[in-house]
Amino acid sequence: MKLRADQTGNHGIPMPLWLQGAFESAQAVIISALIVVLPLVGVWVTDGFQNRNVDSLARLAGQAWLLIHGVPLHLASANAGLGTAGQSGTGLLSLIPLGLTLIPFLLAWRAGRRLARASYTDQLWQAFLGALLVYSAFGAATAFICRTSDISINLLYAMSLPLISFGLGMVIGARREAGSWSRLIGVDAVAWLARTSQHSRWAGSYLGSAAMAGFVALMAALSLAALLLTVDLVIHWTDIIAVYEGLKAGALGGAVLTIAQLGFLPNLVVFTLAWSSGAGFSLGVGSHAGPLGTAVGPLPAVPVFGALPAGQLDLGGMALALPVVAGVLAGWWFLRAGENHFDEWLSIKVKARWFTAAASTVVLGVLIGASAGLLSGALAWIARGSAGIGRLTEIGPDPLWTAVWVAAEVGIGVVIGYAAGPWLEHRQKLREADLDAAVHDADRA
């Protein structure tokens, strides 16, 4: 990018990388702010807010922008904050709509690709520094302007927390554009690994494959949880529509409410994962929703809550099989893509094959289960939070118990999948051989 260009063909002075980074960051700020402001303006135009002042609308938009970046809002009165009208008490609003957090992440991903395209390997930090400084400054300025007597915002959090989603998006985008970490940061991982011992490379390959298999298990479990959530929404669709009709929010108000619920859709998928694992989740202090039963108190009139299974569930225990199935897929994936160097080492030390095969498979299940459990616990910690009002100060799954349950069930599935993998591979090879024979016969005919 150049500072100016004229019609003579001279391209002008190249824009400094730190300035280009600042420009890309400012673009992301403006676009994400507009996406947040537009639905609120629609509600404001239709008299959806009690306070009709424009400055109140601007502060509300700024608070929403900070919330989708993970900045908690401290509520200090009955009518403060987002969605707390008519509620009393004080609290912390920290429930992050992860679906809306994808907006700054994707904008940062675009900025990271553009900055990587414009930078040499040893100069990318200049562009990143300029982008992060501008984004941090905008977060601090937004928090300073949008603070009121009813809502207080920690300036340090406003400066630092938005950099997590934005910085992660830029790094991933830049890595996608560069194609490798060595081209991105100038460090050749292959050359570094070549200088280590063979045993270290084997151990690193084994542990890396186990960690990747844990990620595969988590993705499979989340996909199955999303499918289960979809089925549940379809089954309870009439209950959800009844809540919409009872609210009488109108077309625009219903659309904004739907957008807000879609923003929390990733949170609901994580809640469903915790529910299917047996750990369950809470929708308020003292409440619990799990596959064997649900016990919650009065809930706000949010349409998606109409899909919450109530009472004792006769078939709820079947949901516990979802993380196990994800573990089976991860065990099969490891058999196809990983290298079980621990099994090879153990076979050299101990000649009893029945023992080494069983022991190495159990250890593999423990490692992959622990990896999936840690990742699911981290997701549960990110997805949970507080609405800051009444009993709704505890919403979401418990990270520790989610990690324990998912790790145990995925580990069991890994043992099954890795043990049954050779049989599945043999069946697949037989099918491929039959298909090749049929094609060969057809060609001869």
Can you walk through the features of this model?
- This protein has 445 residues and is mainly alpha-helical.
- The chain has two domains: 17-190, no CATH class; 196-438, no CATH class.
- Helices cover 68% and strands 4% of the residues.
- The protein has a three-stranded antiparallel beta sheet with strand order 2-1-3. Strands 4-7 form a two-stranded antiparallel sheet.
- Helix 4 (124-146) runs antiparallel to helix 6.
- The longest helix has 46 residues, at 399-444.
Keywords:
445 residues; mainly alpha; 2 domains; three-stranded antiparallel beta sheet; two-stranded antiparallel ribbon; 16 helices; 7 strands; globular
Overall pLDDT, averaged? 83
Residues in β-strands, percent:
under 5%
Count of helical segments?
A: 16
Overall geometric form: globular
Q: Which structural class do the helices and strands define?
A: mainly alpha
End-to-end distance, in Å?
Answer: 63 Å
Number of strands: 7
String of helices and strands: HHEEHHEHHHHHHHHEEEHHHEH
| Poorly predicted segments | 1-7, 83-89
Sheet with most strands? 3 strands, antiparallel
Transmembrane segments: 25-45, 57-75, 95-112, 124-145, 151-174, 205-231, 251-276, 315-335, 355-383, 403-421
Keywords: Membrane, Transmembrane, Transmembrane helix
Organism: Arthrobacter cavernae
InterPro entries: DUF6350
